Amino acid sequence: MTARIGFGHRGAMGLAAAVAMAAAMAWGAGPVAADGPGAEGPGAGQPVRLAQAAPSADAQISRTPEGGGTMRGPVTNLPLPRYVSLKGGEGNARRGPSLSHRIDWVFRHAGMPLRVVAEFGHWRRVEDKDGAGGWIHYALLSGVRTALVVEDMAELRARPNMEADVVARAEAGAIVRLGECNPDWCRISGGGERGWVPKSAIWGVDPGEVRD
Questions:
Q1: Pairing mode, if any, of strands 3-5 and 166-170?
Q2: Which residue has the higher pLDDT, 4 or 140?
Q3: How far apart are CA 192 and CA 183, in angstroms?
Q4: Contact by Cβ (8 Å): 146, 175
Q5: What distance in Å separates the CA atoms of residue 126 and residue 118, rounded to the nearest whole number?
Q6: Distance CA 151, CA 159 (A)
Q7: Alpha-carbon distances, residue 78 vs 47, 73, 97, 127, 158 (angstroms)
Q8: Do the beta carbons of residue 203 and residue 186 sit within 8 Å?
Q9: Could you tell me which of 58, 38, 5 has the C-alpha nearest to residue 176?
Q10: How do 82-86 and 113-120 pair as beta strands?
Q11: Phi, psi angle pair for 203, to nearest 5°
Q12: If pLDDT is split at 50, 70 and 90, which confidence band does 53 have?
């Protein structure tokens, strides 16, 4: 019988597999610089929608240059776009990069994977799997990489091969720790289980991204 990573384990991640996923999400909750290695950077869930998000007038969203070049953030010099995760249990996404702007979304699940698409001072414009989001202060983000399972009962395999044994299954909506990736597969972990899944089964990693 294979193990199952379900909604009860949203936010799974931690330094020890025996730690409950909800508690494990507190891992790394201490102060972490948001612009260096392991910074800005599991639990799933949808943000609470407060109002329709709108583009900020204070900073333009950076986009990948025509021709496939890599865009760099003007503040951090890190790639744009890039993936991060929500550090704490709640994060306000605002219409613009300051506390004076209205809150459009509230993300309520620690470890939720988010995509940074722009930078302005201490603020990062982020979006979730559905493209919803806004500007959030960098201190609320972590560089710890997580992924959202988008395929229901996704099969975690012992090796990155469809012929490999299934070692666990994860429900759609579960958030897991993102490990190494090759062009087609990623190794994920959560709820004390780990295994390989096709990239198509998760959100939080680019199609061609390779991780050691």
A1: parallel
A2: 140
A3: 25
A4: yes
A5: 7
A6: 18
A7: 26, 5, 18, 17, 33
A8: no
A9: 5
A10: antiparallel
A11: -125, 135
A12: very low
User: Using one digit for the tens of pLDDT, what is the confidence trace for 156-170?
Assistant: 999 999 999 999 999
Nearest 5 degrees, angle CA 10-CA 12-CA 18?
Answer: 130
Tokens of 102: 């209205």
pLDDT above 70 for 43: no
125 CB-side CA count, 13 A: 26
Distance CA 138, CA 101 (A): 16
Q: What DSSP designation does 77 have?
A: -
Cα 152 from Cα 90, distance rounded (Å): 26
Side-chain half-sphere CA neighbours of 71 within 13 A: 17
Residue 50, phi-psi category: left (phi > 0), alpha (psi -120 to 50), beta (remainder)? alpha
* Cα angle, residue 186 at apex, residues 146 and 211 outer, rounded to 5°: 80
Average pLDDT over residues 182-201: 97
Token look-up 């061609």 returns 208
**Are 104 and 51 spatial neighbours (Cβ–Cβ below 8 Å)?**
yes
3 touches 167 (CB < 8 A)? yes
